[in-house]
UniProtKB/TrEMBL annotation:
Localization: Cell membrane
UniProtKB keywords: Cell membrane, Membrane, Transmembrane, Transmembrane helix
TM ranges: 20-37, 148-167, 209-226, 232-250, 262-282, 310-338, 391-410
Protein name: Na+/H+ antiporter NhaC family protein
Amino acid sequence: MPLSSLTEDLLTVMTDEDVAWVIMVCGLMGSIIALLLKSGSSRAFADKLMRYTTNKPRALLGCWVMGIILFVDDYLNSLAVGTSMRKVTDRFKTSREMLAYVVDSTAAPISVLIPISTWAVFFGALLESNGVAEDGQGVWTYIQAIPFMFYPWVAVILVPLFILRWIPAFGPMKKAEQRAEKQGQCVPPGAEHIDDEIAHLEADTHAKGSIWSFLLPMASLAFFTWWFDLDFLMGIFVTLAGMIVAFIGFKKLSPSQTFDNILEGFKSMLDALAVLVAAFLFNEVNTSLGLADYVITTVEPLVSAEMLPFIIFTVMGFVSFATGSNWGVFVIILPIVAVLGQNLGADMTLVIGATLSASTFGSHACFYSDATVLTAQASGCTPFQHAFTQLPYAALAGCIAAAGYLVLGYM
């Protein structure tokens, strides 16, 4: 019975360890953001940045550079940069959709390219378990494939070209930018409630924040995530505990304000978490239906060594985009890719690069992926508004990457 199957899938999702991890990470990051807002730390950081950002390109390039610096985890990147840069970009009449695009393009793509990240650890372990890399050599094999991860490279490089208008804005993003520049309406219609939540958290605060009370928690997040073997949840726990002690100890917030805002911050992420749970449920349904296996089985007879990287990128990119799953699809397809690549004598570094590129494309472009939802929430627009305006840009990067795999496959 379809309804009973759906309830079983929902229970499977809600009791899944990875889903619980995402809920805790996102909710507690909301708590950290709420404390930064209520203590005046976020405002102090934005005020400091405004002294050095004299125009719109500088403000957006600042977002791009911050995204590269916060490479440890794509969640940290999206939530920290999006939240802290809203006021700065608003000052120069930048649409929230453009801010979300810049932030999202330095989240998963940068985390993939720099091998000291949660992505590198996860995928390195998978390469070992599937026999693509020897024991203990998973991350090194991953590093060797980095030059061939065309999609994240192109996605990151395109950002400053759009910021500096060397490539003009087009599609829905052009309309969003015209709305912001001509009408001064940075927040897209229908996303006002996100700003209202931020205004509520900042209201009635008399605490005078400092730039250090913003930078130290961000540095703590990055350091302790790295210290605990790239476990972002442990980094959040330690950072949140430190903030509670420091903010109460230095009397930036009272104990009641501190714990009330921790709860308020968690609650502010409920909309995003609801979309994420729905996305995980959708992925579970697709898995039950065998969508990924069907697509892979259909394509397998058509593969040659020269076409393998191109086919992997296009097919897996489509599956990852359709399901909203990036790590999950990689788990499913890697055993098949490993066998195909070895049987056909294909260049495995190029094959791995194409596989990771496809996974990154799914994370970056899908309307309901975790990266899209969290970036939209942090930047102040809805997931659909962010994904709809970003999709043509992601498609451009995808086409360039696909052409690269097609050319290199025959070289």
